[in-house]
Structure formats: structure tokens, C-alpha cells
């Protein structure tokens, strides 16, 4: 699974701390996800909701 988290976050002009605040996901977790490219579904759902995108668009290759 490849995440498009960094691309989607930057496209919305959000910093990692801003996304953290709106999603409830810790900054460190977001940084790790952007680096590793995979994570727990429950965390990815929170991030997709905060970015107003589908989980599919966040995770699809």
C-alpha cells in the first residue's frame, strides 16, 4: 500500500502540526506515515476525514 498523505497534505497547504490538530493524530505518527507509507486503518481514516478525501484516494497506488 502506498500512501499519498504528503502530497494530499501539501496540496491543501497544510503543515503536519495543522493536520495533527484537525485529525487528532499525533505529529510524530503523521511524520512516520509520510516516511514509511503504511499505517493502521483507524489512523488513516482519521487523516482521510481531516483531509476531506476518501480512504481509497489516500491509499490507492
Give a written overview of the molecule.
By secondary structure, this protein is an all-alpha fold. The protein has one domain (5-59): lambda repressor-like DNA-binding domains (434 Repressor (Amino-terminal Domain), Orthogonal Bundle), CATH 1.10.260. Helices cover 67% and strands 0% of the residues. The chain contains five helices and no strands. The chain has helices spanning 5-11, 16-23, 27-36, 41-51, 55-59. α2 (16-23) packs across α4. The longest helix is centred in the C-terminal third of the chain and has 11 residues, at 41-51. The N and C termini lie close together (7 Å).
Shape: globular
Q: What is the makeup of the main sheet?
A: none
Structural class: mainly alpha
Question: What sequence of helices (H) and strands (E) makes up the elements?
Answer: HHHHH
The CATH class label is Mainly Alpha
As a whole number of angstroms, the C-alpha radius of gyration is: 10 Å
Q: Provide the residue-averaged pLDDT.
A: 92
The CATH superfamily title: lambda repressor-like DNA-binding domains
CATH topology: 434 Repressor (Amino-terminal Domain)
Q: From the 3D coordinates, which CATH architecture would you assign?
A: Orthogonal Bundle
State the helical fraction: 55-70%
Number of domains: 1
Amino acid at each position: 500500500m502506498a500512501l499519498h498523505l504528503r502530497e494530499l497534505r501539501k496540496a491543501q497547504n497544510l503543515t503536519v502540526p495543522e493536520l495533527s490538530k484537525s485529525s487528532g493524530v499525533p505529529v510524530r505518527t503523521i511524520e512516520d506515515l509520510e516516511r514509511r507509507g503504511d499505517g493502521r486503518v483507524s489512523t488513516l481514516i482519521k487523516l482521510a476525514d481531516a483531509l476531506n478525501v476518501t480512504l481509497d484516494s489516500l491509499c490507492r497506488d
